[in-house]
Design brief:
Helices cover 8% and strands 47% of the residues. It is mainly β.
């Protein structure tokens, strides 16, 4: 089983970046995938985005209107499009997959946030927003 985030890098404030999360070794189609981030010296935050197995999405208020999540089940990929990046978005971004079918959105977010709903954690990718 593998879950790997990629696409991080250095970007100027106001810029854009697209992260990818590649999955393998499990039945990806049935899993929700969420994005977390951990800023330097801070605790992990998230999930701030989730895309469920059926394409429904959840966005935290902090990223609404700026970030977009999508998935390609055929490629076993999830994408995170980040626009209007701010310095406070600087963090290591990680994706995680969980089987939360049957739970409400609120319950699913809670399960992801606690870690109890996460079956697979991916290695992160560093995003640095700086001029």
């Amino acid at each position: 089983v593998q879950l790997q985030a990629s696409g991080g890098g250095l970007v100027q404030p106001g810029g854009s970046l697209r992260l990818s999360c590649a999955a393998s070794g499990f039945n990806f189609d049935y899993y929700a995938v969420g994005w977390f981030r951990q800023a330097p010296g801070k605790e992990r935050e998230g999930p701030f985005l989730i895309i469920f197995h059926d394409g429904r999405t959840y966005y935290a208020d902090s990223v609404k209107g700026r970030f977009t999540i999508s998935r390609d089940n055929a490629r076993k990929m999830v994408y995170l499009q980040m626009n209007s990046l701010k310095s406070e978005d600087t963090a290591v971004y990680s994706c995680a997959a969980g089987y939360v079918e049957g739970y409400s959105e609120r319950a699913s977010v809670s399960l992801f946030a606690s870690g109890r709903g996460v079956d697979y954690w991916g290695k992160g990718t560093l995003v640095t927003v700086s001029s």
